[in-house]
Amino acid sequence: MRSAANFPPISLQLPESLTTAMSNDIPQTNSKRSFLKLVVLFLGGMVGLFSSWGIVRFVFFGTKPKKNRELSREAFNSMKQGEPAFVPQAESWVIRGRDLSSSLALDDRCSHLGCRYKWNQEKRLFECPCHGSEFDIDGNVKRGPASRPLARLFLTEESDQLLRISDQPPGK
Amino acid sequence: MKKPFTPILVSASRGSFTAFLEHIHPRLVPEISTRISFTFCLGGLATLMFLVEIFTGALLLLYYYPSLSNAYPSIQRVTYYAPFGFFFRNLHYWGGQFMVILVVLHMVRVFWTRSYLPPRRFNWLVGSILLVLVFLVDFTGYLLVWDERALWAWTIARNLTEKIPLLGNKFALVIFGPSDMDDLCLIRLYAWHIFMLPAFLVGLMSLHYWKIRKDGGIFTPL
């Protein structure tokens, strides 16, 4: 059994260097210490700012209202088969197939960092101007840095005059 | 005419904040107990992990969907689609694993240094309950993912609970909910994981820390 006698007495003597530093003889303004304090505050503030930016982005994920993408039947019929056509009001590219079910629409944002890409007729590839990602006509990645294919959308019949472009396959 | 602003409230609050910090800190710290090898800070690190879990858990709450068909997809969504979601989810997952490891190591350290002896017997008991609660909170988190592993872990845990003589079935109903598997089962686990077990943990942790000080801090000779 250990007893109190075996332990050294409690020492509260501060080292001399510390007591000197704590004394009021040293001016506290414009000193190295106040500068370091400022640096620490600045760095801490930057870290805090960046972390809160991440948290804010996380919290607001998925809160944007869904895009209302529509396309008139007339515009669809005027498109050439197998040629991508940009539909600005629907913010998507439509590639017309033989009929509606074999047609495809792609969200007009690059899957890498969300730039608007363009169709290159000579190469027959979608090219992103920001980082040079390339996608084929079905939206598959041909060249990085994008790693995911373009977001695919489906065309469904809304009425005789109107087609809807949505991320849900028809019948769901 | 507008009164000039006097920052009296700011300085007053600053004073009370430092007073609060000084209050939770021991008045005297023996020199010898400032050595890291004295406790390896294992209890404090486990507390830090608990705070990390609370913070990241609160963020994950925003996207978790406690139903049998949506739980797993909602976790996939938060991990792979939400900005920084992978970071918060992994922080939550690994924080939980490290919390279990640290709590076990803390118990081993207390046992090794014979700190369970009087006057700390009661705190050893509180710590033992805390250990079980940490296991339970970790286990319920494991089930909430609701993948194949969670499904079988749930089945095994439920069967084991039902095998307890006399009260087994009642226990299983309280802990796991109705026996036919539906959304209510997952909601019950969710309630255990995010509220009831952490509430017990916070209560007992406060008792644990208070008893450390009452029993003479980390240094008083045995």
Features:
heterodimer; A: alpha+beta; 6-stranded antiparallel β-sheet; about 25% helix; about 20% strand; elongated; B: about 220 residues; mainly alpha; Cytochrome Bc1 Complex, Chain C; 8 helices
Describe this structure in words.
The complex is a heterodimer of chains A (172) and B (222). Chain A has 172 residues and is α+β, with helices and mostly antiparallel strands. Helix content of chain A is 23%, strand content 22%. Chain A contains three helices and ten strands; from the N terminus they run H-H-E-H-E-E-E-E-E-E-E-E-E. In chain A, the strands form two sheets. A six-stranded antiparallel sheet of chain A has the order 1-10-9-4-3-2. Chain A is elongated, with a radius of gyration of 32 Å. The mean pLDDT of chain A is 81. In chain B, helix 4 packs antiparallel against helix 5 (121-144), helix 5 runs antiparallel to helix 8 (183-214) and helix 6 runs antiparallel to helix 7 (168-176). The mean pLDDT of chain B is 88. The A-B interface holds A 1-4, 6-8, 10-12, 54-55, 57-59, 61-62 and B 28, 30-32, 59, 62-63, 81-85, 87-88, 221-222.
Amino- and carboxy-terminal Cα gap of chain A: 75 Å
Counting structural domains of chain B, the number is: 1
Q: What is the percentage of strand-forming residues of chain B? A: under 5%
CATH architecture of chain B: Up-down Bundle
Evaluate the radius of gyration of chain A. 32 Å
- Main-sheet strand order of chain A equals 1-10-9-4-3-2
Category from helices, strands and their pairing of chain A = alpha+beta
Within CATH, the superfamily of the largest domain in chain A carries the name Rieske [2Fe-2S] iron-sulphur domain
SSE layout and pairings?
The complex is a heterodimer of chains A (172) and B (222).
Chain A lengths: L15 H7 L9 H28 L10 E3 H5 L6 E4 L4 E4 L8 E4 L10 E3 L4 E3 L6 E2 L5 E3 L8 E6 L4 E5 L6
Antiparallel strand pairs in A: 1-10, 2-3, 3-4, 4-9, 5-6, 6-7, 7-8, 9-10
Chain B lengths: L7 H17 L17 H20 L9 H10 L4 H28 L8 H24 L3 H15 L5 H9 L6 H32 L8
Helix pairs in contact in B: 2-4, 4-5, 5-8, 6-7
